[in-house]
Design goal:
Two copies of one chain form a homodimer. Chain A is an alpha/beta fold. The first copy, chain A, has two domains: 205 residues, Aspartate Aminotransferase, domain 1 (Alpha-Beta Complex); 273 residues, Type I PLP-dependent aspartate aminotransferase-like (Major domain) (Aspartate Aminotransferase, domain 2). Chain A has a seven-stranded mixed sheet, sandwiched between helices. A four-stranded antiparallel sheet of chain A has the order 12-13-16-15. In chain A, helix 5 runs antiparallel to helix 14 and helix 7 runs parallel beside helix 14. The radius of gyration of chain A is 24 Å and the shape is globular.
Chain lengths: 496, 496
């Protein structure tokens, strides 16, 4: 009988998970070994089944962004299987949002645990009626990995909402300071209902060229990467400044790069002055520790310290957007930990590999009144149940150390390729496994990516002509070898 | 052994679910019978355990909005149990976001099904790498309940994001029309990156007083209910117009109410003209079919037809925000179906009881290019797996008919109370179980709600002095009786 078969299947899954997660301390890594050993390509990608499904989906919504359809039941670890049976080494991992790859036993375990069942079934209005285990979940999961110096955390459903509400915390703090901590006036409360000053003040946020922070209006106003994200949408006239354009190799251009960053820090100060004078005061600065969508653009610790100094001096909020850089990909849990800032950022946003959106904030950026930072769901406890397993694996299997090892190996491989193919590759760069290399042209990059996919390696692009690497946290040297062999092969065909 | 115990527990849950869902066609309703038969209050609410947890949560985030902590494992159907063991009839249901109440067997089944396991474990970047069953899930779930005349649907993670992206679809359509369908120019594409015209045009959206559409910048710009949602945030200068203020009982004020609505439709036209002349053209109108957060404000079908006429005539988008009114609560799947509009709205947003956010749109409001309406997750297939069960229950158990019956019974009860307590209650109103009654003062309403909670009935407020009812879809006459008995009791104490 079907139901009995399903029960047996489920039982086997749970028993397997139980053995895996208790019998071997490094279960997660040993499970990763049971992945395919290499890619297997059996059709074009997208293949006939994907094409058929794309055609069907086209009846319901725009399919311009769909690459191919996936068989998630049969995807494992670092290997993604599509509906046509092609098995790909996945170096892009759902736009950098899979911490432990596909079907990790710890996550299967989280869904299968009877004590988690009600968490998956009864999604609450978390900010008003939290579940009994909410405080301990927050403490054991989100607080346990909070950036140094930050004890406050607020969950949200996605990355854009995390940025939106992080910005709101900055605006609230700015105006609260301006009121000298006093309660808002009747005029404040009434005027804001109509979107008018003084209750809705003409504040602005300073962001950087090539940034990406999300696609809702406030987050999009701080985003300056591609026209497809922005065209046709009314946007507030908020200021932005160039992001540093560093010369590589870094060790050869120390002085030039320092000068570039100092110049931009000056431009930040000038822009703030300019907007303050215009009557559009800057309330805060938003920045990614590594600009991802905009081209994997790195800047130095000094630059980020400079932004901290400017915002601290002026009493402005400093929002570090770690939606793509957080959760250990750089070899530290949060990328900005590499900067050793003298004082922590005021807001740190997260999402993607964290499985839940949200932000950490300093106590001073915590709203005084309830209901200021809220919505119906404010996140989802079932995502914290999953994230709890991820955090355990990261801690128990020393994943951050693994990421450093693999990241170094990947970067050294990229540098070797760059030496071998100097006309095509430049600017190999990375922090942990968050790494990238530039091509001579966008067309070459796109062609290389297409050829890599034919060999069963799925990659992602960013910026104008950059190939970015966003593997799982369980990406290891052997996976680098699988990639690098095929990368070399593809590049060598271009040289001919 | 602990794991064995858990396995047995899970097995029993699944077997129970299996029997429930196949043995009796009306399993969902018969299961609702296994709820408690009445509330049970054993401590103050919040009780000592809730208070302790609130204190602990206060170390991590603002707790101003937390009412009490819940024991979701031991909540069933229409009855919510808190951590202190108080069992409450829940007429607010997580801010109107629970379709089938607590721990419904169909939802437990969805989480327990082995074939759904990978859906809960592997959340994809849905707009780029959809799962094999995505098209059939969309067809069987979201498309199967689409508003009349709408075949296109886009998922999103939450209500605010649904509104934000629905508005973006309106802006894209407006500018695409303006370009005569031609591709955007180089100037369009470059200027939008800097938030500047022509690529970022100074378009606006017209909304209504007392509206609520969400808390991200674009959605919040259309929201005009309470200062706590809005204070301190910079907002675009978008226009808004009064929402009709109908006199009750409706049958006695037909002419007055028609005049009020016609006057407002004129104001809408005037406001659009005014903003067009100001160089801030109105691209669309956003409205709730019943204003919820703003006070359960109803308007007539003629009013909503009037808005359709104005927007059609002017080529503007018409967004019907059904985040709180959709999923059957009014006795039709979508509240705007009650209006029998000559032409469907252009965008219909949903979330809350739908368990996933998203919006339906007319084909003409579908963007031509890919990547225009997108983000990393664009929703979550696991929520569609849950929603699929909800839709099945609604269809198989003829829930919409049940909602009509219970809604009529609830409203007639409210009207009787209004007759009995004329100094305190007015404006009993409702559509299905989405219903409300006004109090003479906010203080009285708040006191009545507090006293109801002491008797184990949990309710929600809205507007200035309104009590709103937002029960589950499985709310029945017997639950109305439980409420009404206690309501009468509480109100009678005020009269003394």
């Amino acid at each position: 009988m079907l139901v009995t078969r399903r029960l047996n299947l489920l039982l086997r899954t749970i028993e397997k998970t139980h053995n895996d997660s208790t019998g071997d301390k490094h279960a997660s890594l040993s499970i990763a070994v049971s992945e395919p050993s290499e890619p297997k390509v059996v059709t074009d990608i997208p293949g006939p089944k994907s094409k058929q499904l794309i055609q069907e989906l086209d009846q319901i919504q725009n399919v311009g962004a769909v690459h191919f359809f996936c068989d998630y039941d049969n995807s494992h670890g670092n290997y993604l299987t599509d509906v046509d049976g092609n098995v790909m080494l996945d170096l892009y991992t759902q736009i950098s949002s899979l911490p432990l790859g596909y079907n990790h036993p710890a996550l299967i375990n989280a869904v299968s645990k009877p004590e988690n069942l009600s968490t998956f079934v009864n999604r609450p209005a978390l900010g008003v009626y939290p579940p009994a285990d909410w405080v301990s979940r927050l403490q054991n999961v989100l607080v346990s990995v909070s950036p140094p110096g930050m004890t406050q955390v607020q969950t949200m459903a996605c990355g854009a909402c995390s940025v939106e509400h992080g910005l709101k915390a900055i605006f609230i703090k700015y105006m609260s300071d301006k009121r000298g901590g006093k309660a808002p006036s009747k005029e404040d409360m009434e005027s804001c209902i109509a979107n008018e000053a003084p209750g809705s003040p003409p504040l602005t946020i300073l962001s950087f060229s090539n940034s990406f922070h999300g696609r809702t209006m406030g987050a999009l106003a701080c985003t300056h990467s591609k026209w497809l994200h922005k065209l046709d949408f009314p946007m507030p006239a908020w200021p932005h400044v160039r992001f540093p354009d560093l010369k590589y190799p870094l060790e050869e251009f120390v002085e030039e790069n320092r000068a570039e960053e100092n110049k931009i820090l000056e431009e930040v100060e000038d822009k703030i002055e300019e907007y303050n004078k215009k009557g559009l005061p800057v309330a805060g600065v938003i920045v990614e520790p590594v600009q991802c969508e905009g081209g994997d653009n790195f800047a130095s610790a000094d630059f980020f310290q400079g932004l901290r100094d400017i915002t601290s001096k002026r009493g402005l909020g400093y929002l570090m957007d770690e939606v793509q850089t957080g959760c250990g990909v750089t070899g530290k849990f949060w990328a900005h930990e590499h900067f050793n800032l003298t004082d922590t950022p005021d807001i740190v946003t997260f999402s993607k590999k964290m499985l839940t959106g949200g932000f950490y904030n300093k106590s001073s950026f915590r709203p005084k009144e309830g209901y200021r930072i809220l919505n119906t769901w404010v996140g989802d406890p079932s995502k914290i149940a999953l994230l709890g397993e991820v955090v355990n694996v990261i801690k128990e299997d020393n994943i951050l150390d693994e990421v450093k090892v693999t990241g170094d190996y990947l970067l050294s491989g990229l540098k070797q390729m760059q030496v071998k193919y100097p006309g095509m590759l430049s600017k190999s760069r990375g922090l942990g496994t968050l790494s990238a290399v530039d091509f001579n042209t966008a067309a070459t990059r796109d062609k290389v990516m297409a050829n890599l996919r034919k060999k069963g390696v799925h990659t992602g692009s960013c910026g104008e002509k950059t190939l970015r690497f966003r593997p799982t946290l369980l990406f290891q040297n052997k996976h680098v070898d699988v990639f690098m062999e095929r990368f070399d092969d593809v590049l060598s065909q271009f040289e001919k």
